[in-house]
Design brief:
This protein is of the alpha/beta class and about 220 residues long. The chain has five helices and ten strands. β8 and β9 form a beta hairpin. The longest helix is centred in the N-terminal third of the chain and has 16 residues. The structure holds iron/sulfur cluster.
Length: about 220
């Protein structure tokens, strides 16, 4: 497991890559005002996900709980003029389930946040810590098989990956229980951008409940 910056000792410290205010870009919550809390550290890594577009390897901050809340407060102040009730706290990574714990979840909720986690599904998530759970598995086998939305990246025919075709998508989703099912194009800059065409064809072949997830933040040019 690769979780840089988390130390034992007296006060727990969180390994954080960045905290920023924006709009959630993907999935059913797209367009929602959010403060992103991006943790450093991932239990899978670039060998499993060669197209990973997140720099999670090194923590830029290792604050304790109070310091983490201060980073959230500063981001909310710069983006929204303060911590408004109902703001999404998008806990992501890396793999956020390695770090989100009860004290942090309780403190975020006390400040009015709804907690949305985006996890790779390779670890069981304590659902009582989150108000929304997006699972975006990066391996054919994953253990967290229920939640708010399942979001599969469609690697398609031209990228190495676990979802080359609709049959692979069906196999991965089989026996899962999610409220929403999304197929998302994979962004391959070296191939000219997201593979919209083959992802759209795949969603049309899959039919309901599958929907296309577009990374609207990239379209809109926001973080
Ligand atoms: S699980 Fe997510 S954060 Fe970790 S390497 Fe894969 S794509 Fe990147």
């Amino acid at each position: 497991m690769n979780t840089p910056g988390v130390q034992g000792g007296m006060a727990k410290r969180y390994a954080i890559k960045e905290v920023f205010a924006t709009l959630q870009g993907e999935g059913a919550q797209a367009g929602t005002p959010a403060v992103f809390l991006r943790f450093a550290g991932c239990n899978l890594g670039y060998e499993v996900c060669p197209w990973c577009d997140t720099d999670w390897a090194k923590a830029d901050y290792t604050p304790d709980l109070a310091g983490t809340l201060q980073l959230m407060r500063e981001a909310a102040a710069s983006g929204f003029g303060g911590e408004r009730p109902g703001l999404l706290a998008v806990v992501t990574g890396g793999e956020p389930s390695l770090q989100l714990d009860r004290p942090l979840a309780d403190a975020l909720r006390e400040r009015g946040y709804r907690i949305s986690m985006e996890s790779n599904g390779s670890r069981l998530v304590d659902r009582t810590l989150v108000d929304w759970l997006t699972i975006s598995p990066k391996q054919a086998e994953f253990v967290q098989r229920e939640g708010s939305e399942l979001k599969l990246l469609f690697t398609g025919a031209h990228a190495a990956g676990i979802t080359p075709d609709v049959e692979a998508v069906r196999r991965m989703a089989h026996g899962t229980r999610f409220e929403h099912y999304y197929l998302q194009p994979i962004d391959l800059p070296e191939q000219g951008g997201p593979n919209y065409d083959e992802a759209i064809r795949a969603v049309m072949e899959l039919g309901p409940p599958w929907r296309l997830s577009v990374q609207t933040h990239k379209v809109a040019g926001i973080p």
